[in-house]
Amino acid sequence: MRRATDAQDHNGTVPTKKQSQVTAAPTRRRELLDTAAEVFAEQGYNATTVRKIADHAGMLAGSLYYHFDSKESMLEEILRTFLDELWDGYDTVLAAELGPRETLRALVTESFREIDRHRAAVAIYQKESRHLAAQQRFAFLTESQRKFEKTWLSTLERGVAAEVFRADLDVRLTYRFVRDTVWVAASWYRPGGQHSPEEIARQYLSMVLDGIAIRPQPLT
Amino acid sequence: MRRATDAQDHNGTVPTKKQSQVTAAPTRRRELLDTAAEVFAEQGYNATTVRKIADHAGMLAGSLYYHFDSKESMLEEILRTFLDELWDGYDTVLAAELGPRETLRALVTESFREIDRHRAAVAIYQKESRHLAAQQRFAFLTESQRKFEKTWLSTLERGVAAEVFRADLDVRLTYRFVRDTVWVAASWYRPGGQHSPEEIARQYLSMVLDGIAIRPQPLT
Amino acid sequence: MRRATDAQDHNGTVPTKKQSQVTAAPTRRRELLDTAAEVFAEQGYNATTVRKIADHAGMLAGSLYYHFDSKESMLEEILRTFLDELWDGYDTVLAAELGPRETLRALVTESFREIDRHRAAVAIYQKESRHLAAQQRFAFLTESQRKFEKTWLSTLERGVAAEVFRADLDVRLTYRFVRDTVWVAASWYRPGGQHSPEEIARQYLSMVLDGIAIRPQPLT
Amino acid sequence: MRRATDAQDHNGTVPTKKQSQVTAAPTRRRELLDTAAEVFAEQGYNATTVRKIADHAGMLAGSLYYHFDSKESMLEEILRTFLDELWDGYDTVLAAELGPRETLRALVTESFREIDRHRAAVAIYQKESRHLAAQQRFAFLTESQRKFEKTWLSTLERGVAAEVFRADLDVRLTYRFVRDTVWVAASWYRPGGQHSPEEIARQYLSMVLDGIAIRPQPLT
DNA sequence: TATGAATGAGGGTTCATTCAT
DNA sequence: TATGAATGAACCCTCATTCAT
Fold first, then answer.
1. What stretches in chain D show pLDDT beneath 50?
2. What are phi and psi of D78, to 5 degrees?
3. CATH number of the domain that residue B41 is part of
4. Chain D residues with CB inside 8 Å of C177's CB?
5. In a domain, C218, yes or no
6. How many CB atoms lie within 10 A of CB D213?
7. Domain assignment of residue C173, yes or no
8. What domain range is D173 assigned to?
9. Which letter, b or e, does each residue of A184-207 get, where b requires 16 or more Cβ atoms within 10 Å of its Cβ?
10. Within 46-85 of chain B, which residues have Cβ less than 7 Å from strand E?
11. Band of residue B70 on the pLDDT scale cut at 50, 70, 90
């Protein structure tokens, strides 16, 4: 867990209380990162020039280097911030030690909340994480993914053991199914739309758990 | 002649439907496109240099321009070829005028077959189509997407009307759910793996239709 | 900072009519354009590499793109600036509504002054305008040429009507004769040489009007 | 006078009688050179790709290399052929040892005949000779130019001495005036137009010798 | 004689980055 | 903090040329 700059550690967990910090710097930093994330998400990391980010932020390209070491460090900070917060949420859920079905429900809901909060970051993660993972600097992505997989797989397995989830399905396949199903939503989700993250979570869970087909009425 | 031919021998022998004449030119063209698609899929279109493609093909960067107009035209041909074939398959399915449930089953199965055949192209489509669609040249992507949406939505609606699919779900949400669920598979699918496309389709359909939860045994 | 400044100090201090404010930017721009024009004129536009221009300007090739959009846009600006100034001069002459002979004299003199001021641009115009005119971007060349032709032809015709110019010559031929005769001078003219533009104009006019042959003494 | 290929010497003087030679080769060679010259003249040597020439000739770029060593050798042969023929004509004129006025008349007429015969070559010469002259390979251009200058200057000087040409003009200026005046005609001349080369020569000579102004009627 | 395919040396251009002000 | 100008590496692409067939 090398960190490019020290400043980073400081605002990793300042999401809800904004202006509380006296120094304006972290706020500006966050604004710039949000701007960058938005552009990265829309155009792709590679296709995004530093100039475009600067344009959106109303400054010149060179000026960004007063705030950040490099384009890549911006990307890193965006993804790290997102993942840190995601795991805060997940860890809280896991700490509650609910049953498998409730755990799954809670994780999915938490995921949609993160999509709501970090839509851009999630979209970036989706598109870029695979080839970024190759770089040493982004090893934390791989690590997070591993934790992620472990968390979900074990939840699913607990569910199968408890006869809450079907046993006739390939667990890895199910895992991918659930995982993708949730996260890809970031590609079309627009915060402030007609569905709240919780409402979307409810519908998704309903589909994932019970399917989209009407069940044949059993006997009656 | 490095990796190119490896990927080649696998799905390279598709010209069964196209030109029976084994003219060298089209073959070489296809080989190069397959190579390019592989690299595009792995590293992203923007991050892929023409040089890298040429390396994989065992030639120099400039030599590619004997066969193609530009890097972009390679991308275009890759996507077009894929979509053309996809719609061949879909249209055949639709022409059969099956019931909604069977149509959905057939479309999903066909989709996984396309993923099997054009994994790289699908992955590229997934990652790049959004921002490519802005360009006039790639307008066909938008058009295809529109047809796609219409096809799936109407199938789902027919199913709801026929009381085959649940009526309590937002249809657009369901559409996105099913669509994404299927296509994202391209991001992890590896042809020649332990599951055949049909087997994966079967399991996916089972999850999508009936959910992953065990149904509370009625009566007993 | 090699040759650029040499050529500069010579005709570089022209901004008397433009912006009195000595903002650095426009000056730099002009310096670079003068450098580029010099190289274009000497080696031909196509044979001139952007790197050569940069070398002459004492910078790297890429740096030119901070100031200009492209090599072509440099060419465009060079030609446009020249033609704008040329027409400023011509229009002033025409506005004076002199007789045909005086008009011709004034136009020729003005032309040599422009050659003196914009020798490089004139040389470029001479060599490249024909095939540039095909491009939409350089349509202004064709337009200027049309105005040019109209101006000269009408002056000649007025002169013929007024029995100042010979009537036994093909007017178009005469037009080309005068036009070429003047402008080709740019190919050998060197500013600061032994003849001032006005002196050259005088001699040229003498040849054009009265010929190089000694007239048979008419009776006396 | 180095020559790239031997074949060259053979068709230097075959212009009028085409198919007389048994071997078709030289004819093909000449055709290709004519094609090349046309394209060079229209688009400029540097802007002309070998492919364009080949297109015009109905073959592939590589095939030209069966006939010629290089693009540059084509250019060389085009210019050499033209200059050889030009000097044939000039030398004939000079051998006649006419008076200065008749010599000038004959040289100008001969020049227009060459323009008629080798329009493309003349245009190329006009545009490219300056920067080609720097290359060792094209030293013959400089040499020819020197001879040219000597010929014209001495003719003019003889004329001044014989009180046939005006003495009040700078001879070098007059030389350039006459020279340019004639040759630039290649830039607009179209063979087969309404004026024959001889007719154009006559009018040009009239302008050059007597001017375009009406002489003030002396006494009467 | 001509083709098809490839080479390899640039050429124009982009862009992340630097740095003096 | 931000700007303006420049760097330098890399990128896409072009093109004269080669060569086996």
1. 1-23
2. -60, -50
3. 1.10.10.60
4. 181, 204, 207, 212
5. no
6. 18
7. yes
8. 71-212
9. bbbbebeeeeebebeebbbbbbbb
10. 59-63, 66-67
11. very high
Higher per-residue confidence, C152 vs A24: C152
Query: In Å, what is the separation between the CA of C193 and the C1' of F13?
Result: 44
Q: Is C30 part of any domain?
A: yes
Residue B35: CB atoms within 10 Å: 27
What is the rounded average pLDDT of the residues B136-163? 96
Chain A residues in contact with B213 by the CB 8 A cut-off are 101, 164-166, 209-210
- Strand F near-CB residues (< 7 Å), C 171-200: none
List all residues 6 or more positions away from A197 whose beta carbon is below 8 Å from its beta carbon: A109, A112, A113, A115, A116
| Chain D residue with the nearest C-alpha to that of C216 | D164
Strands (E), A63-179: none
**Final residue before a domain boundary, out of D69, D85, D102:** D69
Mutation to test the C interface, candidates D212, D217, D220, most C Cβ within 10 Å: D212
- Which pLDDT tens digit goes with each residue over D127-154? 999 889 999 999 999 999 999 999 999 9
From the list B176, B208, B214, which residue is nearest A163 (CB)? B214
Asked if D62 and D108 sit in the same domain, the reply is no
Is a pLDDT exceeding 60 seen at residue A21?
A: no
User: Token match 């190119």: residue?
Assistant: B4
CATH number at residue B195: 1.10.357.10
Structure tokens at B99: 């019931």
d(CA D126, CA D133): 12
Q: In B, which residues are within 8 Å of A100 by CB distance?
A: none
Q: What is the pLDDT of residue D24?
A: 55
Q: Tell me, yes or no, whether C194 and C96 share the same domain.
A: yes
Q: Which two tokens stand for residue A19?
A: 């202006």
Closest nucleotide to residue D27 (Cα to C1')?
Answer: E1
- Using the Cβ of B42 and the Cβ atoms of chain A, whether some distance falls under 8 Å is answered with yes
Question: Are B88 and B60 contained in the same domain?
Answer: no
Q: Does residue C10 belong to the interface with chain D, where contact is any CB pair within 8 Å? A: no
- Does the residue C208 lie in any domain? yes
pLDDT digits (tens, 9 = 90+) for B85-119: 999 999 999 999 999 999 999 999 999 999 999 99
DSSP-derived secondary structure letter, A5? -
pLDDT in tens, D166-185: 999 999 999 999 999 899 99
How far is Cα B41 from Cα B60, in angstroms, rounded to an integer?
Answer: 21
Distance of residue D154 Cα from the nearest chain C Cα, in angstroms: 15
Query: What is the pTM assigned to this prediction?
Result: 0.86
Domain shared by A64 and A98, yes or no:
no
| Residues B129 and B197 reside in one and the same domain | yes
Chain C nearest CA to D12, separation (Å): 28
Question: Considering its fold, how many domains does chain D have in total?
Answer: 2
C93/C192 same-domain check: yes
Q: Do B49 and B138 reside in the same domain of the chain?
A: no
Q: Measured between beta carbons, which residues in chain D are less than 8 angstroms from residue C180? A: 180-181, 184-185, 187
Instruction: Determine the Cα angle at C202 with ends C198 and C205, to 5°.
Output: 130
Collapse the DSSP code of B213 into the 3-class scheme (helix H, G, I; strand E, B; otherwise coil) and give the result: strand
Per-residue pLDDT of chain C (220 residues; tens, 9 = 90+): 333 333 333 333 333 333 333 445 678 999 999 999 999 999 999 999 999 999 999 999 999 999 999 999 999 999 999 999 999 999 999 999 999 999 999 999 999 999 999 999 999 999 999 999 999 999 999 999 999 999 999 999 999 999 999 999 999 999 999 999 899 999 899 888 889 999 999 999 999 999 988 976 655 5
Domain stops at, among C25, C45, C69: C69
Q: At what angle do helices C139-161 and C119-132 cross, to 10 degrees?
A: 100
Q: Can you spell out the DSSP letters for C148-183?
A: HHHHHHHHHHHHHHTTSB-SSS-HHHHHHHHHHHHH
Q: Specify whether the CB–CB gap between B40 and B118 falls below 8 A.
A: no
Same domain, C199 and C113: yes
Selecting from A165, A176, A195 the residue whose C-beta is nearest the C-beta of B213 gives A165
